[in-house]
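Internal tracking record. Fields below are filled automatically when a chain is submitted to the structure queue. Please do not edit lines marked as system-generated. If the sequence contains nonstandard residues, flag them in the REMARKS field before resubmitting.
Queue: standard
Priority: normal
Entity type: single polypeptide chain
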Amino acid sequence: MWVRVGTDPPRPESQAVVGFRQRLPGVAESGGGCLASAKPRVSGGPVRSSRSAKQLGSSRAFELSLRARRGPVCAAAVELVGPGGVVDARGGIAALRGAPQRVTLRRSRRLRRGLYRLRIDAAALGGVRGAVPSTVLFRLR
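SYSTEM-GENERATED OUTPUT FOLLOWS
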């Protein structure tokens, strides 16, 4: 591990504090440069190739096209919540920024007809984890 803290040019009264803690479940490497924002929001939906219920129900994994609005989303754990509040698929994202990005979710159960929404838990300001609002909502028929 390496850490670089600095500024150009530093003032005499400048100081920096670096803290370390044990990794929490669901935290992934961000690749650097991912600083959580105060109020991120995620939008998107299934990619075109996986929009039909037949494909979503028969494949072990499917892809979503997601994008973060109002800042990046760092070290996110993504869950697809189906009818009855049951988690049907899971995945992870190291860093989700403004440009659309494909995210693969691995199915843990067979998808049924009904309404599905995305639940996202990500690193927030101060290093704590929190829920990120998501507008991803779709119905399988």
